[in-house]
Structure formats: structure tokens, C-alpha cells
């Protein structure tokens, strides 16, 4: 069992920055894939970024590459999503999710692969 606790989120002006965090607890002695997902009103849930806590390997959605950065702390218990140059279209509920992995490769962005989910945090970007 892995418990995910999110923090961050809020309202920012277009062009601003925000950093989301996702703290993992419980059975975290094995490496995890941690994914960031978002769902905007009227749209399907989409993968934003992923990070392998064992290796630090990351994946980004093409449309977000260069603006969003996923990272991990030294212990691998917390992952972050640095969001820069935010746009109104980034407004969504953001979720972190995780599943256990045995390798150090890049993590899938398929939401179906993820077993544990955080509660979500709202990000609102104003024009």
C-alpha cells in the first residue's frame, strides 16, 4: 500500500509558475513510477509527466515539454512538478499517481497502469 499526499496548487496569472508536490508513504522501499495527470472540465484525463523514483528518468507530454519539469528528492519519497509559463489552458485538477516497478526505465503515461492516486489539487490560471 502506498499513500500519496499532494500539496501545492492554487491560482496564478498567465505566465506564472507553480510547483506541485506529491509525498509518498507506506510501502515505498521499492522504486515507484510516479505520474502526474490532469483533467480539465469537458476533457479527458491526460498524462502530464512521469518520473521513475529509482532512476530519475522522466517523460513529458510533447505539448508540455519545456514548461513542466518533474523531479524527485534525494530519498525518493517526494516528487515535484514544476510548472512554468502557465497558460489558461493548463487550468485543471492535477493528480499524482504511482505504481511499483522493478526497473529503472521511463514510466508509462497510461493512467490505467497506476494503482495509487492522490486526492488531486486544483490549478487555476487566469488570463
Provide an overview of this structure:
The protein has strands spanning 2-7, 10-13, 18-26, 32-39, 46-52, 58-60, 68-72, 78-83, 92-100, 116-117, 121-126. By secondary structure, it is mainly β. The protein is globular and about 40 Å long. A hairpin with a 5-residue loop joins β5 and β6. The protein contains no helices and eleven strands. The strands form two sheets. Strands 2, 4, 5, 6, 9, 10 and 11 form a seven-stranded mixed beta sheet that branches.
Lay out the secondary structure.
Layout: E1 2-7, E2 10-13, E3 18-26, E4 32-39, E5 46-52, E6 58-60, E7 68-72, E8 78-83, E9 92-100, E10 116-117, E11 121-126
Parallel strand pairs: 2-11
Antiparallel strand pairs: 1-3, 3-8, 4-5, 4-9, 5-6, 7-8, 9-10, 9-11
| Cα radius of gyration in angstroms | 14 Å
Give the strand content. over 45%
Low-confidence stretches: none
Q: Percent of residues in helical segments?
A: under 10%
**What series of H and E elements makes up the topology?**
EEEEEEEEEEE
What characterizes the major β-sheet? 7 strands, mixed
End-to-end distance: 40 Å
The total count of helices amounts to: 0
- What is the β-strand count? 11
* Average pLDDT number: 94
Quick gist of this model?
With 127 residues, the chain is mainly beta. The protein is built from no helices and 11 strands.
Which characteristics define this entry?
mainly beta; 7-stranded mixed β-sheet; 11 strands
